[in-house]
Amino acid sequence: MWTEDDCDVVVDKLRSLPKEMKRVFIYFYGGEPTLSKQWESLHYNIIDVLGDRELFLQTQTNMSLKATRLRAFLENITSTTNHKIDICSSYHLGKQKCDDFIEKMDICNEFNSLGLCFFSTEVPKEEQFIDEFLRIAKKYPEKLKLKFTEIEGLRFKNLPGYKHLMHDDFLMGDDDGKSLEYRYFMKNYPWFEDYFEEGWNFNIDGVVKNYSTVKAENVHKNFKFMKCACGTKNMVIDHQLKTYHCNDDYYNQVNITPIEKLDLRTYFNRDVRCLNSACYDGLDHVKYR
Question: Tell me: the pLDDT tens digits for 183-210?
Answer without folding.
Answer: 999 999 999 999 999 878 888 888 999 9
